[in-house]
Amino acid sequence: MRTLADFLRITPGLEAEDAEWLHLLVEDWHLLADLSFSDLVLWVEHEGGWVAAAHTRPMTGPMVFVEEVVGQPASNVFGDLVDRAAQEGQSEHVRERGQDLIHERARTVRRAGRTIGILSVHDQLDSGRPQTRLEEAYAEMGDDLFLMVAEGTWPHATSPSGARRGAPRVGDGVIRLDEAGRVEYASPNALSAIRQLGHPGPVEGEVLVQVMSDLPGQTSHMDEGLALVAMGRAAWRSDLETRGAAISLRAVPLYRGRTRHGAIVLVRDVSELLRRGAELMTKDQTIREIHHRVKNNLQTVAALLRMQGRRVPDTSARTALGEAERRVGVIAMIYEALSTGFAEALDFDDVAVRGLRAIVEVARTSGAIDSQLTGSFGLVRAEDATAVGLILSELVQNAVEHGIPEGGSIHVDAQRTTEDDEGDILRVTVVDDGRGLPTGFRPSRAGLGTRIVTSMVHDLGGQIRWDDAEPHGTRVRFSVRLGGVES
């Protein structure tokens, strides 16, 4: 059976960033499935019409489709539901299936103002039984997420959607916050998890971050990352431990257009997981946890820089803060990659691709940017990864800002060779087809980014050179010496 990647690879007109967005949606769409008690199907366009590329079932209620849906054309099973959504933006109908009534809705999946797929939601109508308060709250939150898919504001690019140990799901506990962080609804499992921490009073109607800060046994100020999650302002995950109990929280901010009107906070009691984890903790697990915490702290720093930048009236100061935020974000991305593996090294090709796409995605250019990565960085040790990541990020950012501000192409090539017992040599070339080097360019007198690159290359015992590319553009070549990676 074909995978989602297989379908996306042959979908006409789909850009690499579009495919990544659809992968992010499928990684996180269990939230919508569980909140709406519904099966979800993702449809992508092919020459013969719309075809089902992915399918998930809810864990909170009965499934609608026992049989496999992936690979089927929309018209075979769902009539014109998907076609009408593609034409009108949304569609809805109820159809009979034996003794059951199936309620079906479909909306466009959008990114950067374009339709890149259709998402359909399918659930069984339970006529004659009034909805419980839990079902009403779940349905409202599910509708919010469904609308955000159509507006292109969900999934969040920074959301920790990967399946990780202890990651909370809807069935573990759900809290709905308003825009001020006040609890509008808390599911029974969420209430139980907070009670385990020692909170004796009510939760609904209270500001969640205040509930967390007033817990007995708190010996220090609340971590900034936890505060942002508890307020529903950042699509992050954080943990809270007190009095031998612990919970994991994950926030999903809710938007209408560009306005945040609340958040969903998933809550899971992870006390037993932590107890067993402590018994089985190894050196590798300890290092991963350190990387994870460093990443969380760096994300907090980046968020604070971003918030400060919005309040600075001076344009140059705002630009400098934005650059600092980007550099901190690069380091956070590397520590995130380190926190998901067991080794003290990471596959840098994946980091390079993510970093390249992130810069291109937010580039303020008047034309499109085509990016390409060839060769391989290989495994890079943690102590070298930050420097290599910052060097690459600065060179690509400079190419976008100064080389191809009207659009163009960027090509990154990496070659790794082993030359002696002291380590490997990494040779990287970054080429753009833009304006070329300015007259009289000298790295020692260039901007901060160029000086950062030069300093870090020298720290790694390497060399760097800037040249004009043929027929036009800029070519930057650097080589650094990396420590060997134990197999």
TrEMBL record:
- EC number(s) on file: 2.7.13.3
Top-level lineage group = Bacteria
Picking any one GO molecular function of the record gives: protein histidine kinase activity
Sorted UniProt keywords: ATP-binding, Kinase, Nucleotide-binding, Phosphoprotein, Transferase
Reactions listed under catalytic activity: ATP + protein L-histidine = ADP + protein N-phospho-L-histidine
Q: Which InterPro entries match?
A: H_kinase_PdtaS_GAF_sf, HATPase_C_sf, HATPase_dom, His_kinase_dom, PAS_4, PdtaS_GAF, Sig_transdc_His_kin_sub2_dim/P
Histidine kinase domain residues: 289-484
Against Gene3D superfamilies, the record matches this protein to:
GAF domain (3.30.450.280), Histidine kinase-like ATPase, C-terminal domain (3.30.565.10), PAS domain (3.30.450.20)
Q: Entry's SUPFAM superfamilies?
A: ATPase domain of HSP90 chaperone/DNA topoisomerase II/histidine kinase
Organism in which the protein naturally occurs:
Janibacter hoylei PVAS-1
Q: Please give the name of this protein.
A: histidine kinase
